Amino acid sequence: MTGPLGWLFDAQLVIAGQAVLWREVIGNLFGLASALGGMRRRVWAWPVGIVGNVLLFTVFLGGVFHTPQDRDLYGQAGRQVFFVAVAVYGWVRWRQTRRTGGEGAPAVVPRWAGVRGWIQLATIGVVGTVVFALVFRALGSWGPWADAWIFVGSFLATYGMARGWIEFWLIWIAVDAVGVPLLLSAGYYPSAVLYLVYAGVVSTGFVVWWRARGEGTPQQVTAAAGVDG
């Protein structure tokens, strides 16, 4: 890629002798901003997150786009695509809930997923991780089992956030616990550092949402529940 766009695409900085793409740094900062917006239940968290997803998609296909890391993490790249799809769903859902609640209403009312939700999350988490680990291993992904859990767990966490389930913060913590070692071993240092920052944000977010559970009017709670029941 040539010209100004090529320069922006390939721009790097050097940290401790290690070349790092600005796209990786900026993409993760957008992701952090989205997490902070989600903690505050702001609708803008979704479009901000989408920008970060698009940037990070190109970063984690290091071999394809010839990044300094030059390693393909198919799970990390693929989850950015799922993030965009789920983010559109969450964006629409939160906007509808806020309109239903009236002026000044929160975009979502935090609540527990319940037994039905837990079964759904656990089933998809286990089956999805096994299936995608086999797929990623066949594709030659770096650390296929860890990559598969990060892929599936991230999808579940984002879906849980869209539904207003408090458990989605705990899923993010589990994703971070696996993601940091994987990213360090693959050389994606800015992403690994941001994962550590995310761990602090999601821990705080869990407490904030737990304290806010069930707040709002009956109409808001019904809107947040959506198709449950």
From TrEMBL:
- By its UniProt entry, which InterPro entries does this protein fall under? NMN_transpt_PnuC
Record keyword Glycoprotein present: no
The record's subcellular location field reads: Cell membrane
GO cellular component annotations of the record: plasma membrane
Q: Which residues cross the membrane?
A: 20-37, 44-65, 115-136, 142-162, 192-210
The molecular function terms of the Gene Ontology recorded here are: nicotinamide riboside transmembrane transporter activity
Q: How does it sit in the membrane?
A: Multi-pass membrane protein
Q: Does the keyword Zinc apply?
A: no
Q: Its principal location?
A: membrane
Mention any Pfam family matching this sequence: NMN_transporter
Highest rank taxon of the organism: Bacteria
Which of UniProt's keywords are assigned here? Cell membrane, Membrane, Transmembrane, Transmembrane helix, Transport
Q: Which family does it belong to?
A: Belongs to the nicotinamide ribonucleoside (NR) uptake permease (TC 4.B.1) family.
What protein name is recorded for this chain?
Nicotinamide mononucleotide transporter
List the taxonomic lineage.
Bacteria, Bacillati, Actinomycetota, Actinomycetes, Micrococcales
